[in-house]
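FORM 12-B: Structure-to-Sequence Request
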């Protein structure tokens, strides 16, 4: 194997979790099973994009969709074993961001608009 090539499995894993919003959805679901509207509100993501990303993550075996035949029908999303196995990765990412990432300052309020 060439020293400069990236492991194909690592590359695929990075593509999956770094897809727009995927990592944040996984992080949100680490808190436990949630309904679509809860995830949508927590992340401030469009319903269309959330639906698309949940389908992608379900296809990859990271998220599972449970339908409860109640009235009205209740649908919850949760992480599979494969998804929960990402928890240590996300904990380490949280530690890294706490130590190394500075948030941008909020823009100063314009005194003329007060």
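FORM 12-B RESPONSE
SEQUENCE OUT:
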């Amino acid at each position: 194997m060439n020293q400069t090539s990236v492991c194909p499995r690592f590359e695929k894993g990075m593509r999956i979790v770094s897809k727009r919003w995927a990592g944040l959805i996984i992080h949100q679901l680490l808190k436990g099973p949630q309904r679509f509207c809860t995830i949508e509100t927590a992340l401030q993501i469009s319903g269309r994009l959330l639906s698309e990303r949940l389908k992608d993550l379900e296809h990859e075996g990271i998220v599972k969709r449970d339908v409860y035949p109640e009235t009205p029908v209740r649908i919850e999303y949760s992480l599979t074993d494969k998804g929960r196995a990402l928890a240590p990765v996300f904990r380490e990412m949280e530690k890294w961001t706490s130590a190394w990432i500075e948030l941008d300052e909020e823009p100063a309020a314009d005194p003329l608009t007060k």
